[in-house]
Amino acid sequence: MGSDDIVAALRQVPLFARLTGEQLRWMADHGRQLHFPAGTRIAEQGAAADGLSVILEGHTQWSRRTGTESVPTFTLEAGDLFGELILFLNAPYPHSGDAVTDVRLFRMEPATFWELLRLAPGLSRGLMELASQRTQQQAQDVRPQSEVLPVGRMAAELGAELGSPAAAARRSAVRLGELMATVSARAMALGDHGLSLPQRSVLLALPREAAERGRTSPPLEPWPAPSARKRWAPGWRRAAWRMRGRPRPRWWLQAWTSRGWSRWRRAWAGRCWATCSRGWWWR
Question: Which residue did the predictor score with more confidence, 108 or 3?
Answer without folding.
Answer: 108
